[in-house]
C-alpha cells in the first residue's frame, strides 16, 4: 500500500533520514527558543551560552522521545496516556541531562542544576517549548494513524468490489460454459472432457485467489490460461490467444484477478461480436520503472460509451464508466498508489490495447 500503515506510524521515525530530519528541525526550533528567551530575559545569560544550553536540552529531549516511543510497554497504552508519560519522562531528562552535556561542551565543571538556586524562566520556557514539541509529535502520529485507517478502509472497499465482481463474472461464465458442455456431451465427448478439466483448473485457481490478497504473476497467468482454454473451446477457431511471461517476472506478487476483467472485456466487447477469427495477447515485460502488462485484441474496438470518454490523444480517461476498467484502476490505486496506472489505447489498425503499469 502507498499510505503509511498503523504499524509504521507507531514506530515513526523508522528510518535514519526521518530521524535526521527531526533532529535538524528540532535544532532550528530550540535555536529560535533560545533567541526569544534572550530577548525576554536579557540579563539571564549571553546568547551564545543560551544557544548551547538550549540545543543540548532540546536535542536530548528529542532523543529521549524517540527512544521512549520505541518501547513496547508504552506502545500498549492509549495515545493520550502514552504521550503524557513520555512528556513526564523526556522533559526532566532533557533538562537535567542536557545541562550536563552543555557543561561538558563549554569546558565547565559538572554540577546539579538547581542545587543552589532555581531559575524559573528557563525552566518554564523549557516545559513550554518541550510541551509544544510533544504535541507536534502526537499530532503527527494521529494524522498517520488516520491516514492508515483511510487506506485500510479503501483496501477493504476495493476487496468488497472484487468479491462483487467475482459474483458477476463467474455465474455468467459458468452458465455459458455449462450450456456449451451440454451440447458437447452429445457431439464431442473428448472436447467436453477437456472443457471440464479446464473448468476445474479455473475454479480451483479462482477459489485460491479469493483467499489471498496477492498471488505470483505466474499464477495469475495460469488462471488466464485456464479461462482462455475454456473460451477457445467455446468459440472454436474464432479465438486464438497467446500468453507471454518472462521467467524473471513469474514470482512478482500482484493482486489476484487483476487481469481477468481486461481479458473478459476484450472477448466480450471485441472478439465475440466480431465476424470471423480473432486473437488476444497478454504479454508482460520488465521496464526501467517496473512491469508493463499488455492485453491486446484485434476485435471491434472500444464500445461507443468508452470511445466517447477518451482523451484527444486516444488514451482513456480515468473516469471511464466501464465497471471492469474502473475496478482495475481503483485496485491499482489502492495497492500501488499513483505510481501504477491502466491505459486504454486504440489498436492498429483495429482492436483495443489495455496496458497495466506496476511500479518496481
Commentary on this structure:
- With 360 residues, the chain is of the alpha+beta class.
- The chain has two domains: 6-151, no CATH class; 188-359, Heat Shock Protein 90 (2-Layer Sandwich).
- It is 62% helix and 11% strand.
- β4 and β5 (290-297) form a beta hairpin.
- It is elongated, with a radius of gyration of 31 Å.
Provide a concise account of the structure shown.
The protein is an alpha+beta fold.
The main pleated sheet reads as:
5 strands, mixed
Number of strands: 7
CATH homologous superfamily annotation of the largest domain: Histidine kinase-like ATPase, C-terminal domain
Biggest sheet strand line-up? 2-4-5-7-6
Under the CATH scheme, the architecture of the largest domain is 2-Layer Sandwich
CATH top level class name of the largest domain: Alpha Beta
Order of helices and strands: HHHHHHHEHEEHEEHHEE
Stated plainly, the CATH topology of the largest domain is called: Heat Shock Protein 90
Q: Which descriptor suits the 3D outline?
A: elongated
Radius of gyration: 31 Å
Strand content range: 5-15%
Q: Count of helices?
A: 11
Instruction: Return the average pLDDT rounded to an integer.
Output: 79
> How many domains is the backbone divided into?
2
Amino acid at each position: 500500500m502507498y499510505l503509511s500503515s498503523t504499524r509504521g506510524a507507531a514506530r515513526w521515525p523508522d528510518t535514519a533520514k526521518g530521524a535526521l530530519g527531526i533532529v535538524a528541525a528540532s535544532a532550528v526550533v530550540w535555536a529560535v527558543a533560545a533567541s526569544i528567551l534572550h530577548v525576554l530575559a536579557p540579563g539571564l545569560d549571553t546568547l551564545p551560552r543560551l544557544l548551547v544550553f538550549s540545543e543540548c536540552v532540546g536535542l536530548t529531549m528529542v532523543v529521549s522521545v524517540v527512544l521512549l516511543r520505541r518501547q513496547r510497554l508504552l506502545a500498549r497504552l492509549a495515545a493520550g496516556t502514552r504521550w503524557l508519560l513520555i512528556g513526564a519522562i523526556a522533559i526532566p531528562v532533557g533538562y537535567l541531562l542536557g545541562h550536563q552535556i552543555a557543561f561538558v561542551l563549554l569546558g565547565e565543571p559538572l554540577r546539579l542544576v538547581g542545587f543552589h538556586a532555581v531559575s524559573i524562566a528557563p525552566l518554564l520556557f523549557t516545559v513550554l517549548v518541550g510541551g509544544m514539541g510533544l504535541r507536534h509529535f502526537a499530532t503527527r502520529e494521529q494524522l498517520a494513524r488516520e491516514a492508515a485507517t483511510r487506506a485500510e478502509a479503501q483496501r477493504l472497499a476495493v476487496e468488497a468490489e472484487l468479491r462483487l465482481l467475482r459474483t458477476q463474472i463467474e455465474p455468467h461464465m459458468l452458465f455459458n460454459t455449462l450450456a456449451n458442455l451440454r451440447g458437447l456431451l452429445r457431439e464431442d465427448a473428448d472436447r467436453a472432457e477437456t472443457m471440464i478439466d479446464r473448468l476445474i483448473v479455473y475454479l480451483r485457481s479462482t477459489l485460491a485467489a479469493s483467499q489471498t490478497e496477492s498471488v505470483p504473476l505466474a499464477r495469475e497467468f495460469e488462471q488466464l490460461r485456464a479461462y482462455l482454454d475454456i473460451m477457445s473451446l467455446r468459440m472454436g477457431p474464432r479465438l486464438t490467444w497467446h500468453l507471454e511471461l518472462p521467467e524473471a517476472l513469474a514470482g512478482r506478487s500482484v493482486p489476484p484477478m487483476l487481469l481477468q476483467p481486461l481479458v473478459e472485456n476484450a472477448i466480450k466487447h471485441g472478439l465475440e461480436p466480431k465476424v470471423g477469427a480473432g486473437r488476444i495477447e497478454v504479454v508482460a515485460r520488465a521496464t526501467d520503472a517496473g512491469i508493463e502488462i499488455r492485453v491486446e485484441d484485434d476485435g471491434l474496438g472500444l464500445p461507443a460509451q468508452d470511445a466517447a470518454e477518451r482523451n484527444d490523444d486516444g488514451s482513456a480517461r480515468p473516469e471511464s464508466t466501464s465497471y471492469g476498467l474502473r475496478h482495475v484502476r481503483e485496485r491499482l490505486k489502492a495497492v500501488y498508489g499513483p505510481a501504477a496506472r491502466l491505459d486504454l489505447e486504440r489498436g492498429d489498425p483495429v482492436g483495443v490495447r489495455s496496458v497495466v503499469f506496476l511500479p518496481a
